[in-house]
Structure formats: structure tokens, C-alpha cells
């Protein structure tokens, strides 16, 4: 971090590891945000077992969110240096 | 008391007692050599695996208040109350990566609270104090709300006395809770959370299958809901709500869900749950599995409409003399279930209040001990002193929460919770963004925090609630037309609503950015960063590290 070098008392950060690791897979974590775009689903029809679309669409996003998070977890866990499990 | 209520009470008491015994026994569970250490009492020894963490976080985040208040919100205002579902859908994926960083850096440096991290990152006890006080203040009304949920159940059972002593059953429940939290620390709620979840799952599954069958299916239930919500309210002449969102509250829905999701893991009690887990893998698995509760929450929210279709009426609170909308779900259960099963359901909600109340009081106690007592009052406190201080503080916090319930109308305590959400969100730049970058100057963060808090309070103060005739603190939905920045109204006349917390957070960030540029230009001292970039990915404590926080504990 840039500012940490301003203070002479701070030891230098370990140079080997970058502080921020970007992985394209992590973008999957943004998919559930679709449940915030209300114009997409704020309608009554089609209904499912009596539930308006507004309600069952959001319930349907729950497993999608779980699958996305699970994918990220499975794909990235080896890089995450998890020793003890 | 009717015969049915006696049966409900007996079942409730049996389950409640069983749980209390578990709470006291918990201190022996995975026993440490010495419970007189804050890591042991306040974080359960940092050894909870995936399952325990799942139950602990579930007990922490899906509380009695959620189970009581979210259906009540759908009951009274319709689709807007369903915001809790997208909120819990987006929360876990969004916070997974930041939480992993927080866990690692806290493990390396021995941080117990979010404020500990801020102190290490920014070398500023003052900024840490601001974060700690914000956390304690935001947590108190949250604990009070758990009590409101518990009391809603007690009053439905018929323990609906008037005046001060009408709260007596609540006092008894709370003395029991306080005693076993004092004794066992975080181990008690972790163990009880398992029982709570099993009970809640049984109750909800039965309710969501049995009740719609009994009432003619969801089609009929939604028809009844739409019809009732479309009736004009006697106080405003407008419809009270709608089973779909309107043009004016869609933005409120999305910003409320997003703001709540971001606030969720800024609350000290959620951080306590995360830091008590044994590894990064535990957190990753939990962020994957926790949304399973969202199903439960969605089904539960729909009980608000079920209550409309069943013609349920809220019970009049004996202490305030006014109908208490929190009693909708308990009253629905009492009216539709056999007495013994209603008793089980009430026990589930009641125990669902005790688990988070215990964790929250422990988290608030940790904040007090680490960031106020040890920092400013007794710098040479030993680990034993810290644990003792935290145990006492947990008692004080609980007494404070009980006072909340006795002094203020439970209806008002819901508003306090809204305020709590707005203020805890203002710690986002100093806690969450700081996990990624130290670009912000520490005093700029403090300035942004202060502006966000004050502006948020001013906006909340200015929101009336025509439905119950209140002039101030009537909710968290700000009409954009009312947005006033020193006389400048960018959206004049607009009736589109937005969540106050989101607006205040934007103000907070803008101030933090501007002040950072100013301070950097003036070359103000930035303080030392005690964390290193490798710390944020650490999977275990490096043996070469002897960080200050660890050595001082």
C-alpha cells in the first residue's frame, strides 16, 4: 500500500505477494445482483402455483446465487493455499 | 388465559428450560484450559468448524426479529417487505472475498473486533474508537428488537400484563440468558443455535405447506392480500400497499436490499461469528451454504399474506394499549395450529431471540473491552482482566437493551433498528474498503463518518409517517424530492423513494475523498500501517510474526 511507505518506522510489506488478486471467476459473485433490477420482474404474470412472478423469480435467484458462489469456491480454493481443512 | 394458551405455555417452557440447561453446559464443550481469556469467552477459542459456524451465523443473522417483523411488513405494506429476500441473496456472494481478507488479517494480528483492525491499519485509536462506539450504538437497538420479538410471543401466549410488570416474563427470560452467556461466552449461543434452527425449519415447513392448503392455495392468499392492501388507509386515504412494487418504491427496494447487505457484515456480531471460525475454508463453505436460509426467509415472509387471508388481527400490547404488528405471526400460529404445535413455534421464535441477543451482547462487550477499556482506561489490562471486563460489559449491554423495551414502544424500536442500519453503514469505508486499500487518509475517514452519521440522522428526522401520525423518524424511505443539500434540491418534486443509508453513504464517501486530497496536499501524517499485504491472504499465523496486538493480549 502506497501510504505505508511514508512512515519510516513501518517495515516494508512483503514484496512477493500482491495485496489484490484479481480472478475473472470472481465476477460470478456479481450475478445475484440481478435481484436488484426490479423492472425485470415487477409483474404479476406468469404465476407459479399461485405466486406472482415478482415472488417466484426472486426465490429462483436463490439457487442461482448458491451455484455461482459454489463455483467460485470450488475453482479458487486450491490457489487459496488452504493448508488445514 | 385459555386452555390452549396453557398448553402453549407448557410446551414453550419445557423447550426454553432445555435450552437454558444446554447454555450452562456449553462452557464444557470443547473446553479450553482457561475460559478467562477474551479469545475463549468472546470468540469460542477461534475453533468453530463449518457446521458450527453455519448455525452460529444463521442464528446471528436470521433472528427472531426477522421472523416476526418481515412478515409483519408484508402484512402491513406488501411487496416492499420482500426486500429481505434479495438482501440475503446478494449479501453472501458480495461479502465473501472481503471477509476472507478480514479473517486472515485478524488471525495474524489477533484482532477480536472490526475496530481492532481499523486501529492496526490506520494507527489511530481515535478512528478505532469511532468505529467501536458506532458498533455498540447500532447493536443496542438490535438486541432490543430481539426482545420485542420474544415479548410478542409471550404476549400472544397470554402473558400480556399491563404497565411495567407486564414486562416481567421478559425479565425472567433475560436473566436466564444473561447468566449462561456470562458463564459460557460464545459457546452457549453456538450450541443453542443448532436447536433453534431445527425448530425453526420444522415450524416453517409445516406452516408453509399446511396453511396454504387450509386457506385455498397461494392464488387465493394473494387475492386476499391484494384486496386488503388496496383498501385506503383511514389516516392517509391512500392504499396501504400493494403486492407488487409501485413506480415510487422500486429504487427504495433495491437500495434498501443493497444497503442492508453491505451493512450486514459491518455489524460487530456478524464479525464475531466470522472471526470465531477455524479457517478460510470454513468461511468459504459458509458463504456458499448460508443462502439456504434465504428460502426459509422467503417462505416466512409470505406468511404476512397468509395472515391477511386467515383474517389474523394483531394483539393489543397490554403495556402500551395499542395493537402491536409484531404479534401478527404468533397470532397467526395461535389461531391456525393445534395448541401444542403453536407452543413449539413460539419456542422456536423465542429461542431465535436468545441466540442473536447473546452473540450481539458478546460482540458489544468485546468492542467495549478491546477498544475503549484497554485502549483508554487500563492499558496494562491482563487477558484475565479483559475477559472479566467483557463478561461484565455483556451484562450491562443486556440491561440497557431491556430498558429500551420497557421505556420505548416496540413500534418505535423498529425505527431504532432502521437508524442502527443507517449508522453502521457509515463504517463501510473505514472497515470494508480499508481491507483493500489504504488510499483514504485516516482523518478523512473520520470526517466522512461524521458527515454520513449527521446527514443520515437529519434525513431520518425529517421523514414523517402519515400512517401512524408521527412527524419524525417515520421510516428509512426518503422521497428524492426532499433531498436537500444546503438548499440545493437536485430532484425537486420527485416522489421516487430511496434508502437513507445509501444517500448518507454516498455523502460519506464524497467527503472522505475530498478531505483525503486536501490532507495529502497538506502532507498531514498518515500513521503507520501495522498490516502487510501478505497478511490478507494468510491461512495460518506465521511463526515469525509477533504483532503488537497479539503480544499485548
Automatic annotation (TrEMBL), chain A:
UniProt keyword list: Membrane, Transmembrane, Transmembrane helix
Residues passing through the membrane, by range: 24-41, 53-75
Pfam families, per the entry: DUF3311
Entry keyword annotation includes Membrane: yes
Annotated protein name in UniProt: DUF3311 domain-containing protein
Species name: Actinomycetospora aurantiaca
